[in-house]
Design a protein that fits this description.
The chain is an alpha/beta fold. It is built from ten helices and five strands, in the order βαβαβαβαβαααααα. It has a five-stranded parallel beta sheet with strand order 2-1-3-4-5, with helices on both faces. α4 links the parallel β4 and β5. About 5% of the residues have low confidence. Keywords: DNA-binding, Phosphoprotein, Transcription, Transcription regulation. InterPro entries: CheY-like_superfamily (IPR011006), NreC/VraR/RcsB-like_REC (IPR058245), Sig_transdc_resp-reg_C-effctor (IPR016032), Sig_transdc_resp-reg_receiver (IPR001789), Tscrpt_reg_LuxR_C (IPR000792), WalR-like (IPR039420).
C-alpha cells in the first residue's frame, strides 16, 4: 500500500526538500502541498491523504487549528497528523496531541527519522519515541489549568476499562512498546495489542498517542512516576 503524504509548511523550500525525500520512497507519494492549515484541510479532504506532515506554526490557520479541524471531521477520521516543530521543547506539542496528532518531530530530524515517522503514523502507532515527548506530556498535563496548583484529574473515563486494560494503559502511558509491555506483564504481544485496541475503542482514542494523553489526563500516570 502506498502511503499518501500531504506536506503543510509555509516555507516552500522546506516543502520541496520533503517532497524529494518522500517521493524517493517506493511506498510513499506526496499528494499535495499546503502553505497554511486551511489549505491543508482542503487538500486532505480532496485528495485523501493518509499522513499530514504539519508545521505547528504557520500564518493564518496554524497547524494546531488545522489538526483540530482534521481530527474533528468524520470524513478525515483515518488521516494521521505528525506535527513538525522547530524546537523539541514546545508548549504546543501537548495541545497538538490533545487535538489528535499522532506525535511530533523536530524539523532537524534525520531523513530516516522523518520517513520512519510517516510509516509509524500511517500504521496507527504513536510517534512518541523521542524522550522529550514523554517529558513534555508529563510536564504540561501535570500543570492542569496553569494556576500552579495540583492538576484536577477525572478518572471516570477509565470506568469502562477492565483491570488488565488499565494495567496496559499505564505501560502505554510510560511510552513502552507492545513487546516491552508483554515482557513486563508476562503475556504475549498479541494479547497486549488486543488490550490496547479495546482500550482505544472504549476511550474513543484515535491512536496510541491519544491513549498516552488520556493516561496523564485521568491521573492514571503521574508526572515523575
Amino acid at each position: 500500500m502506498t502511503i499518501r503524504v500531504l506536506l503543510a509548511d509555509d516555507q516552500a523550500l522546506l516543502r520541496s526538500a520533503f517532497r524529494v525525500l518522500v517521493d524517493s520512497e517506493p511506498d510513499m507519494e506526496v499528494v499535495g502541498e499546503a502553505s497554511d492549515g486551511a489549505e491543508a484541510v482542503e487538500i486532505a479532504r480532496a485528495r485523501g491523504a493518509d499522513v499530514v506532515l504539519m508545521d505547528i506554526r504557520m500564518p493564518g490557520t496554524d497547524g494546531l487549528a488545522a489538526t483540530r479541524m482534521i481530527t474533528g471531521d468524520p470524513q478525515l477520521k483515518d488521516v494521521r497528523v505528525v506535527m513538525l516543530t522547530t524546537f523539541e521543547v514546545d508548549e504546543y506539542v501537548v495541545d497538538s496531541l490533545r487535538a489528535g496528532a499522532s506525535g511530533f518531530l523536530g524539523k532537524g530530524a534525520e531523513p530516516d527519522e522523518l520517513l520512519a515517522a510517516i510509516r509509524i503514523a500511517a500504521a496507527g502507532e504513536a510517534l512518541l519515541s523521542p524522550a522529550a515527548t514523554k517529558g513534555l506530556i508529563a510536564r504540561f498535563l501535570a500543570q492542569g489549568d496553569g494556576s500552579g496548583g495540583e492538576a484536577a484529574y477525572d478518572s471516570s473515563r477509565l470506568d469502562a476499562l477492565t483491570v488488565r486494560e488499565r494495567e496496559v494503559l499505564v505501560q502505554v502511558g510510560g511510552g513502552l512498546s507492545n513487546d516491552e509491555i508483554a515482557a513486563r506483564l508476562e503475556v504475549s504481544p498479541l494479547t497486549v495489542k488486543t488490550h490496547v485496541n479495546r482500550a482505544m475503542a472504549k476511550l474513543s482514542a484515535r491512536d496510541r498517542a491519544q491513549l498516552v494523553v488520556i493516561a496523564y489526563e485521568t491521573g492514571l500516570v503521574r508526572a515523575g512516576a
